[in-house]
Design goal:
heterodimer; A: 405 residues; 2 domains; 6-stranded mixed barrel; B: 273 residues; alpha/beta; Rossmann fold; 4-stranded antiparallel beta sheet; 8 helices; 10 strands; globular; binds adenosine-5'-triphosphate; binds magnesium ion
Chain lengths: 405, 273
């Protein structure tokens, strides 16, 4: 009952001094709001990345030339490139789990045609590639097995290249020049968007691996072998099997480490997730500082108000308030203000992040955990920063407080 | 009267303030006893130590030396919290300034001491405060804030606040210092009525006009008691009645004079006609 009355007294004092209350709460409002928005942006980025990784294509395994670690030191991914078409063929012939297999070689070059020229990357791939990557065509068709075998000069353009070189028409049937080699455009890929690390996946052109190797580049090593399984459940077994096939293909002795790497979707996403987790933590840390500053703001105003209200404290003590009563009153005041500020901050944070989400097109996700943490934290701020001024008020002598001008 | 009847017993009290390097001796050995049901006026020039003595009696301050017993309890041996409870339960203090909370209505100011009543003697704080305000004649001003009240009304709110816990002792430091003569007499009437109900009252004043309503007058000079006399007090109620009667008579006279003027004017008009 007494506690309830003291809360009422604190509430009245808060309502009576609207401006002071608002200024006190402002720091907390902004702090809590900032934490929620920052965390929401971070988490949104994370879920977006997860989605994009899913988009890479399902059931996919990626074999890359291994960072062969001898005596513990990585020698770098490209230091020992030993992927060849023979490896891919061996997988095609021997693997039971592999549904499709595609070598990938890259060459960076200028593509001339239509409106001008465009610097891009040409991927040499096989007919399995669009299936493995789960990548449909916007128009035209993909090259077929015989075109691939004979190394026909055909090319499938990514959406970015197509839209830049041929903004006003469908490029299918047109001819482009790649390193002075005329190539027929037979298809255009559908838009796929950005990769987790911000690369434009559509800024690419696909050609038969034979064509790229023979006519466009003399780099015969293969950068990647993509494999997809029949079912996502097979991924682990497939990974084991591919490892065995690759080791045999490379003639590795039992004691020798792998000179290649096989990674699945999950392993690919882990790396990306690591970076966004760091980003989220960093954003939250920055926002927490503003929450701390908000807390100091509360202490500041409470301290000023102890001085400003010394007479009030004196009156209350003169009519029988104990030091503890005054302490409780001031503490309740600062806690109520910081919780109220926290609640408004949550409203600001939730509103702000959904507004950001819709206006900037960012994926933002407010989670309840952050909200709970924000409430607990702002109450803690109230207690922590309210205690010192409250104790100062409680320690006053009634007669000194009354005499204070 | 027997020793046990003394509600307030002050023995050899000294109070010394340190102002930088110089010592100010506000009280220099005061011995002073007040019996249950007395109405005492403490007089003296400004700076003679009246407020200092009242603050010690009221449990707001500790003496530098000497002892003070309230209802047989040695007050200067109590802890801060016990002293706070004594202020709350036993004493009603009316301050030299009114010391009301600003931006707080009369009734909220009045019920304030009940908030700190650990014995919870009053279930309904609002009701107790309303009664106290009615007792001082402010039943129709409960929701007014101090800045919406006259000086006399503010002083009466302060008295109501001192009365709300039904203390056995009321201490008032210059309760009429800021009031005109009519309001002064009204406030003194209130104190006399309370005293008649058995409340012990000590008030500070430097006006003889006020002191004449007290049965006992104590005079301080330079922190020492130089005079302590019993007298036959005047009745404030009578004076209020007289005052009202005189005012009414004056008004009647004025009205009569006005009527007379009107009559002569009429006469004049008739004469002319
Ligand atoms: N806090 C203080 N510090 C230093 N000196 C003080 C303090 N309070 C009072 N004094 C001194 O003690 C003396 C007595 O003061 P006190 O307030 O008791 O006088 P008073 O009789 O109430 O005067 P007044 O009629 O003007 O109210 C004065 O000389 C005053 O200057
Ligand atoms: Mg004084």
């Amino acid at each position: 009952m007494r506690a309830f009355r003291l809360i009422k007294v604190a509430g009245k004092s808060i309502v009576k001094n609207k401006m002071r209350t608002l200024l006190t709460m402002l720091g907390i409002i902004i702090g809590v709001g900032a934490v929620i928005i920052m965390v929401a942006i971070g988490e949104g980025a994370q879920s977006q990345i997860e989605e994009q990784i899913q988009n890479l294509g399902t059931n996919m395994l990626v074999i890359t030339p291994g960072a062969a670690t001898t005596s513990g030191a990585s020698q770098g991914a490209m230091s020992f490139n030993r992927l060849r078409s023979e490896d891919a063929d061996k997988i095609r012939n021997e693997s039971v789990y592999a549904a499709g297999v595609s070598e990938v070689i890259f060459t960076r070059t200028q593509i001339v045609g239509g409106n001008g020229n465009w610097r891009s990357t040409i991927h040499g791939v096989t007919t399995d590639y669009p299936v493995i990557r789960d990548w449909d065509l916007r128009s035209g068709r993909f090259f077929d097995a015989s075109e691939e075998r004979t190394g026909k000069k055909v090319i499938v353009l990514g959406a970015t290249i197509a839209d830049n070189l041929f903004p006003d028409r469908d490029p299918v049937g047109e001819r482009v020049l790649v390193r002075n080699v005329p190539m027929d455009v037979i298809g255009v890929l559908e838009m796929k968007g950005q990769t987790p690390d911000g690369n434009d996946q559509d800024d690419v052109a696909l050609a038969p691996v034979q064509t790229v190797q023979r006519r466009l580049s003399n780099w015969t090593f293969i950068r990647q072998i993509l494999v997809n399984t029949y079912s996502p459940d097979d991924i682990d077994e497939a990974q084991e099997e591919l490892k065995a096939i690759m080791r045999e293909a490379h003639g590795l002795a039992d004691w020798a480490p792998d000179d290649f790497e096989i990674r699945n979707q999950e392993q690919l996403s882990e790396a990306a997730q690591g970076t966004t987790e760091v980003m989220t933590a960093l954003l939250a840390a920055i926002a927490s500082i503003s929450l701390l500053v908000g807390g100091i703001g509360i202490m500041n105003i409470m301290l000023v108000s102890v001085t400003e209200r010394t007479r009030e404290i004196g009156i209350r003590m003169a009519i029988g308030a104990r030091g503890g009563d005054v302490l409780t009153q001031f503490l309740i005041e600062s806690i109520v203000m910081s919780i109220l500020g926290g609640a408004l901050g949550i409203a600001l944070g939730v509103g702000g992040s959904s507004l950001l989400g819709s206006s900037m097109g960012w994926a933002t996700a407010v989670n309840t955990e952050t909200v709970v943490v924000a409430i607990v934290f702002s109450a803690a701020v109230g207690i922590f920063f309210g205690f010192y001024p409250a104790r100062k008020a409680a320690a006053l002598n009634p007669i000194d407080a009354l005499r204070f001008e | 009267m027997s020793e046990s009847n003394a509600v307030i017993r002050v023995e050899g009290i000294r109070k010394t303030y340190l102002m930088g390097k110089t010592e100010v001796h506000a009280l220099q050995g005061v011995d002073f006893t007040v019996e249950q049901g007395e109405l005492v006026a403490i007089m003296g020039a400004s700076g003679s130590g009246k407020s200092t003595l009242m603050n010690i009696i009221g449990g707001l301050d500790y003496p530098s030396s000497g002892s003070y017993f309230l209802d047989g309890i040695e007050v200067n041996k109590l802890s801060k919290n016990e002293l706070a409870d004594v202020r709350n339960q036993k004493i009603g203090f009316v301050f030299q300034g009114f010391n009301l909370l600003a931006r707080t209505s009369a009734i909220e100011n009045t019920e304030l001491p009940l908030l700190y009543d650990r014995k919870n003697r009053f279930k309904n704080h609002r009701e107790a405060a309303r009664k106290a305000l009615e007792r001082v004649g402010l039943g129709d001003r409960v929701d007014h804030h101090p800045n919406e009240l006259s000086g006399g009304q503010q002083q009466r709110v302060a008295i109501a606040r001192a009365l709300v816990t039904t203390p056995s002792i009321v201490l008032a430091d210059e309760p009429t210092g800021n009031l005109d003569s009519k309001t002064t007499v009204e406030v003194m009437q209130l104190f006399q009525e309370l005293n008649a109900e058995g409340v012990t009252i000590i008030l500070v004043t430097h006006e003889d006009e006020v002191a004449r309503y007290a049965r006992r007058v104590v005079e301080l000079r330079d922190g020492q008691i130089i005079k302590d006399v019993i007298q036959q007090p005047d009745s404030a109620a009578d004076d209020v009645r007289d005052l009202l009667a005189r005012r009414k008579a004056a008004q009647d006279l004025e009205a009569e004079a006005l009527a007379g003027d009107a009559a002569t004017t009429n006469q004049g008009t008739l004469d002319a006609g």
